[in-house]
Specification:
Helices cover 31% and strands 26% of the residues. By secondary structure, the protein is an alpha+beta fold. The longest helix has 15 residues, at 109-123.
């Protein structure tokens, strides 16, 4: 189980690994994340997608949550997809999604999610975390670089839509 250091889990926001009962809250944020990338809102599909990833153990999702007077609200999440490196002969993770609700940005939540992802990866013997971001997203790039992520200068990546 992920044990977040106290400095990452202050009173305002707690970072923890999401479980199946969290799928609706994470799905809500995932829908907003997709809309941020100019996708149409589809809350039911977002809930289903997140629920399936959790049920099938196809991703690791960490959530940032904050206590409210009437319960707890998820304020952000990071989703990591397990993969493998043939050359390194070990597990790697792809950080595919990082999102913080606009009302909670500029509070260090994204940084805490990145730090918790790194810690959990280390605990699980993951060799590295890779990610990609839009070329124009300089704010995210600055955050990633401040957390030790380096732009790849050895490989060129290609995609094929099928």
């Amino acid at each position: 189980m992920l044990s977040i250091p106290e400095e990452l889990s202050e009173m305002q926001h707690r970072i923890r690994q999401a479980d199946l009962p969290d799928s609706n809250e994470v799905g809500r944020l995932f829908n907003e994340y997709r809309m941020f990338y100019n996708q149409n809102a589809d809350i039911e599909a977002a809930h289903q997608y997140i629920r399936e990833r959790m049920e099938r153990h196809e991703s690791v999702i960490l959530v940032a949550e904050r206590p409210l007077s009437n319960g707890i609200i998820c304020t952000g999440f990071v989703q990591l997809y397990p993969s493998f490196s043939s050359v390194s002969m070990g597990p790697v993770w792809v950080l595919n999604d990082l999102y913080v609700h606009p009302d909670y940005r500029q509070q260090g939540i994204a940084r805490k999610l990145l730090q918790a992802a790194k810690q959990l990866a280390s605990e699980r013997g993951v060799l590295r975390i890779s990610l990609s971001t839009e070329l124009s997203n300089t704010q995210a790039q600055a955050l990633y670089e401040s957390e030790g992520y380096a732009q790849d200068t050895k490989f060129m990546y290609y995609e094929l839509n099928v």
